[in-house]
Write a structure and sequence with these properties.
The complex is a heterodimer of chains A (about 280) and B (about 180).
Chain A lengths: L6 E3 L4 H11 L3 E4 L5 H6 L7 E4 L9 E4 L2 E5 L4 H5 L4 H4 L1 H6 L6 H4 L4 H7 L5 H8 L3 E5 L4 E5 H4 E3 L2 E2 L6 E8 L6 E7 L9 E7 L3 E7 L6 E6 L9 H11 L10 H21 L3
Parallel strand pairs in A: 1-3, 2-3
Antiparallel strand pairs in A: 4-5, 5-10, 6-7, 6-10, 8-9, 11-12, 12-13, 13-14
Helix pairs in contact in A: 7-8, 10-11
Chain B lengths: L22 E7 L2 E7 L5 H8 L18 E4 L2 E4 L12 E3 L2 H5 L7 H8 L9 H14 L5 H8 L10 H10 L11
Parallel strand pairs in B: 1-5
Antiparallel strand pairs in B: 1-2, 3-4, 3-5
Helix pairs in contact in B: 3-6
The chains are: A alpha+beta (about 280), B alpha+beta (about 180).
Chain lengths: ~280, ~180
Amino acid sequence: MKPASFDYLRPATVADALAALAAGGDDARVIAGGQSLMPMLNMRLVQPRLLIDLGRLEELRTLRADDGWLTVGAAVTQAEVLARPTLAREVPLLAAALPWVGHFQTRNRGTLCGSVAHADPSAETPLCLVATGGEVVLRSAKRRRTVAAADFFLGPLTTVKAADEIVECIRFPLARPGSGHAFREQSMRHGDFAITACAATVDDRTASLGVGGVADRPTLRSWPLVDGGLPPDLDDALNVFAWDLGGDDDQHATARYRRDLVRRIGRTVLEEALSCRR
Amino acid sequence: MPPLTFLQTSPQTPPVLAAETRHAVSIILNGKPRTGHAHPRLLLSDFLRHELGAHGTRVGCEHGVCGACTVRVDGVAVRACLTLAVQADGRSIDTVEGLVEANEGRMTALQEAFRRHHALQCGFCTAGILMSLTDYLGRNPKPTEEELRDMLSGHLCRCTGYAGIVRAVMDVTGQTVSEVSHV
């Protein structure tokens, strides 16, 4: 499996990358870590005429926490974010989820923004971005705009990002004191795509559960706490959520199995998040 | 698509590398400067093997799953099949051949431990596992068995059942291995 032919550009500035992307239109693709795009190139599922490499752009290597947000630039790898000593305090859900992303060897190159732009419904980073109420910053040669994660994903490999835009950075809100977070997923082998992934956040009033791998995009639902605990009818609430997600049978798992995983892993992560509130 | 030769970019940006042309790619391979030629679509794994004759790196699944082609780029273990040769231009690439070359022609302690513990049979996956381990053990010199098995999940070995590999790494890091790992 080898990629089809393409021209290759390694721009020295983001402005040059965006000019090339505007000129290339639908025939151009950007690559950063390449851990989603390269398999698709190798399998010839995508055949761009121009590949624009963002991987070495210092301008896209932002990784900082300020003004209540953790900002992650397009060229920052999953390994770099995971190695950030303060991550578990800043965005504990992301700290819990990143070890589930691929393998040690792919996290060394794969980027968070690339995973968000790729928009696989079972990917961990888009799920965390939706579950935390994060944002996607899009930039083209003409403009920059910020889109809420909840509005960014439209379906499998489909987002509101236009052909001339790149995901310049993504922004996770810093965790509020007193909130608890937990992440778990079920896959055929560790590092494989999740059959179902669950991300829970519990604060002093609300329990939220984000689910990936079932619906066509990461989906979030929240319930008010009852007497400081999870709702007494949580099993029914999770069952309704599992059916509402409308998962399908595919080569990995049946819809019925996915519903069961939402009920079981959903409860597990919500209880874990409740118990680890600080 | 408009011809990109007319693309207005800043002077620092190098020209577009045309798909049909073989472009010079220079890397530091196991400490030595090497130059070969590559179409933009050529994978780093194929560049190492077919252009530079460095056959130690194996090619398996070519979509990042099996781990056979793992090499170190600027010290970091990555999949050579998910990296383009042109992306590696100017980088330091370490492959399995470099382990012995950097150790005065003798096998490293890790390789000796692999031999002692039968951590390989056909050997197809071994080069990639060794390159992952040299990066990983540099960051985490005494991994627990659980941490090690998590890292090894990025490599497929169909001969050993991983038990020998785990034993070899535990041995070389001065740790004992639990009985469970013999399964």
